[in-house]
Amino acid sequence: MSRTVYVNGQYVPEEDAKISVFDRGFLFADGVYEVTSVLGGKLIDFAAHATRLERSLGELQMESPVAKDELLEIHRELVRANDITDGLIYLQITRGAADRDFAFPENATPTIVLFTQSKPGLANSPAAQTGIKVISIEDQRWGRRDIKTVQLLYPSMGKMMAKAAGADDAWMVEDGHVTEGTSNNAYIVKGNTIITRHLGNEILHGITRAAVLAFAREAQMKVEERAFTIDEALQADEAFITSASSFVMPVVEIDGTGIGNGEPGSVAQRLREIYLDESLKKAV
Ligand code: PDD
């Protein structure tokens, strides 16, 4: 069965979902996106994703073609039309189509596209039991990583470097310190302290990160928001990542060296449980 996709105000079968070759998302990566997970047919952390989307748009002087409550309705309609129990909803807004020119066009109408990806058992991924392996690579992205733009070529290359090295993902390093994973935020645990890079332009302000750190503090765990090095990570007791698609995922190996005892750590496992339980309660 063909997926139903949302394009500029219409729900259409995916084969009929089309945008212009002059779209600035295509020509300039002039667009922003969000990925929201769906568990049990409900949206996880929707409000926070919608708020970050507004911020990304604002930073690029773009307007949303759709109001926030309408956005929720579109997400829900796509979940319904595609019968999604567990999966992801991808949303992209670009500055729209205009004759090719580096300067922003004056009157382009933004393009909006949303589609679903069905992922049955998303919250029970086997990787959560075994943990993932990461390699470290240089962070060669642009300087405004706090804006969730569709410029994902370097993260894609990073993923390919990881694959070539027999790993699952890459942690990016700038000026000797870890920024984040290719599509997730990075953490280490030493004793009972969770360490993750402070917010700034160097990383995406993860929605899962914000929720997980709040739950960790509520559970009386110590949190340090500061940069750390790969050497420090190699000496840590545990490591993990967070994202809307992986929730909390243990990291068991960095650059071929096992972290802690080489098994998923108890802090990561506990945070994963708390995050899934609590966000399911608030899911819409
Ligand atoms: N990626 N850092 C980067 C570079 C990301 O691309 C993502 C999300 C995150 C985690 O953010 P959040 O917790 O809000 O998902 C951090 C999404 C899932 C993706 O590109 O598929």
UniProtKB/TrEMBL annotation:
<keyword id="KW-0100">Branched-chain amino acid biosynthesis</keyword>
<dbReference type="GO" id="GO:0047810">
    <property type="term" value="F:D-alanine-2-oxoglutarate aminotransferase activity"/>
</dbReference>
<dbReference type="InterPro" id="IPR036038">
    <property type="entry name" value="Aminotransferase-like"/>
</dbReference>
<comment type="similarity">
    <text>Belongs to the class-IV pyridoxal-phosphate-dependent aminotransferase family.</text>
</comment>
<dbReference type="InterPro" id="IPR043132">
    <property type="entry name" value="BCAT-like_C"/>
</dbReference>
<keyword id="KW-0028">Amino-acid biosynthesis</keyword>
<dbReference type="InterPro" id="IPR018300">
    <property type="entry name" value="Aminotrans_IV_CS"/>
</dbReference>
<protein>
    <recommendedName>
        <fullName>Probable branched-chain-amino-acid aminotransferase</fullName>
        <ecNumber>2.6.1.42</ecNumber>
    </recommendedName>
</protein>
<dbReference type="InterPro" id="IPR050571">
    <property type="entry name" value="Class-IV_PLP-Dep_Aminotrnsfr"/>
</dbReference>
<comment type="pathway">
    <text>Amino-acid biosynthesis; L-valine biosynthesis; L-valine from pyruvate: step 4/4.</text>
</comment>
<dbReference type="Pfam" id="PF01063">
    <property type="entry name" value="Aminotran_4"/>
</dbReference>
<dbReference type="InterPro" id="IPR043131">
    <property type="entry name" value="BCAT-like_N"/>
</dbReference>
<keyword id="KW-0032">Aminotransferase</keyword>
<keyword id="KW-0808">Transferase</keyword>
<keyword id="KW-0663">Pyridoxal phosphate</keyword>
<comment type="function">
    <text>Acts on leucine, isoleucine and valine.</text>
</comment>
<comment type="pathway">
    <text>Amino-acid biosynthesis; L-leucine biosynthesis; L-leucine from 3-methyl-2-oxobutanoate: step 4/4.</text>
</comment>
<dbReference type="InterPro" id="IPR001544">
    <property type="entry name" value="Aminotrans_IV"/>
</dbReference>
